[in-house]
Amino acid sequence: MDKSKIFAKIDQLFAEMVELRRDLHMYPELSFQEERTAKVIADYQRQLGLEVRDHVGGRGVVATLRGGKPGKTVAIRADFDALPIQEENDVPYKSKNSGVMHACGHDAHTAIALGISKAFAAYQDQLCGTIVFIHQHAEEQDPGGAKPMVEDGALTGVDAIFATHMENYLPVGHVWHNDQVILGASDDFELTIKGVGGHGAFPHDTTDVIQIGAQLVSSLHQVVSRKVDPLKPAVLTIGAFQAGETANVIPGSARIEGTVRTFDEDVRYQIADWIKQITKHTVAAFGADFDLDYKFGYPALKNDRALNQLLVKAAADVLPEQNIHVMEPNMGAEDFSYFTGAIPGTYFFTGSANKEKGFTYPYHHPKFDIDETALRNGAKVLASAALDFLAERSDEQKV
Ligand SMILES: [Zn+2]
Ligand SMILES: [Zn+2]
């Protein structure tokens, strides 16, 4: 089917996408609590005539658009939860839900997906294959919405999946992509050291958890520098160490919390083992006890090489080639990785920054906002990739 028709339709729908985004922006909902948002999405998709399944893996919504001609199935994923942040933007579409804000652009992702859906629905008869819109709840909060959605069959019959994220480190009109691991696995641990408290003047009668904790903080930081292959990226950060309240009392317990980010699956589990080993032996050496709760979170996000190549070509039909850049991977995390762990997928960033208009604050900032032109760019690149995938795969079927 003719791509230019879809692009023209998206241009025509731009104002509506802005309106949709602003409505969602005004009524943000926290992860796992997205009641209104899920309903707005399901109602919109139903009105377009799509087959809609809601409460997928929780509050997820899966909407299926079957083309008039046979072909493969491609999915577009958009997350829709917001964050516990008080918005500091003074705009007509400012959040009306106190303490909750779309500070990660998931309102934009949703508006993009709905815009694409409406554009394709207008040409449903001419479409070869099927497009599935995967509206995902709860991306921001572990254990996330992606995993239960996959387990609840969101990807059944889907051959490939694409997603984009707003990016305020990148000017509007540009995209970032990469054909390898682009975001890390994110795991957390919580450790309680249990000793014997007492008077600060009589440490020999106590088991001092502060001293043991200090040793552990130091030793655990050496896991990455001494036990991980230097060519494999990893980071361990201890973000909390709490114990004691006053100068002359040795407390009975101490609490340490940390996060571990990795790209490589083996390194991920090696670090978890080292943390357990070092904790066990350090604590035992001083005669204390411990509880260690190690939580494996989102896996690393790995893009599919072939699909990413297809995406880059598809993006070149929308944006000048010099605006399509290879991105540097980073240790952020994203549960889109559960989708790409199940089927081939690729995830890219759509530039949403505009210095002149003041859209420069990064995501999760109380002043985060985007140049809404990004809605049109993101929608066109995703639509272009979906069409190329369906066309390519339909050709393959003919051979
Ligand atoms: Zn976020
Ligand atoms: Zn996000």
Automatic annotation (TrEMBL):
UniProt keyword list: Hydrolase, Manganese, Metal-binding
Residues making up the signal peptide according to the UniProt record: none
Binding sites annotated in the UniProt record for Mn(2+): C104, H106, E140, H165, H364
Keyword match Lipoprotein: no
Cofactor section: Mn(2+)
Co-factor: note: The Mn(2+) ion enhances activity.
GO molecular-function term, one example from the UniProt record: hydrolase activity
InterPro entries given in the database record: Amidohydrolase, Bact_exopeptidase_dim_dom, Peptidase_M20, Peptidase_M20_dimer
Domain Peptidase M20 dimerisation: start-end pairs: 188-280
Family, per entry: Belongs to the peptidase M20 family.
Protein name: Amidohydrolase
